[in-house]
Write a structure and sequence with these properties.
The protein is α+β, with helices and mostly antiparallel strands. It has a domain of 80 residues: Stage V sporulation protein G (Arylsulfatase, C-terminal domain, 2-Layer Sandwich). Helix content is 28%, strand content 35%. The strands form two sheets. It has a four-stranded antiparallel beta sheet with strand order 1-2-3-4, with helices on one face. The longest helix has 32 residues. The radius of gyration is 23 Å and the shape is extended. The termini are far apart. The relative contact order is 0.14.
Length: 115
């Protein structure tokens, strides 16, 4: 089974959940709502899950082999880093395009009215 698409659907700059991802296998099967979480030991993926009671969660879909989980994780992290780099490049480009205080045109003051 090949990973044919990885889409970073939402990125959060705040909090522990950094992104929500969808991944497609063989252009035929998609898994939504995989989360990238910033944990104590760095980033990890959390498979889609459902709350089962008092704080317990159960995975809805998950790989059975650790090799498969690692392939999924690597594909997701490659795309996540790519999207983060693109966002950073866009921020830098926007910052460079924004006029500085010296470059901004001076506002003309309206003539004062006298009574």
């Amino acid at each position: 089974m090949d990973i044919t698409d990885v889409r970073i659907r939402k990125i959060n700059d705040e909090g522990k959940m950094k992104a929500v991802v969808s991944i497609t296998f063989d252009d035929e099967f998609v898994v939504h709502d995989i989360k990238i979480i910033d944990g104590q030991n760095g980033l990890f993926i959390a498979m889609p899950s459902r709350k089962m009671g008092e704080g317990d969660f159960k995975d809805i879909a998950h790989p059975l082999k650790s090799e498969t989980r690692n392939r999924i994780k690597e594909a997701i992290f490659v795309e996540y880093e790519k999207v983060l780099a693109e966002r950073e490049a866009e921020r830098k480009a926007a910052a460079e395009e924004a006029p500085t205080a010296e470059e901004a045109p001076a506002e003309e003051s309206a003539p004062e009215e006298t009574e």
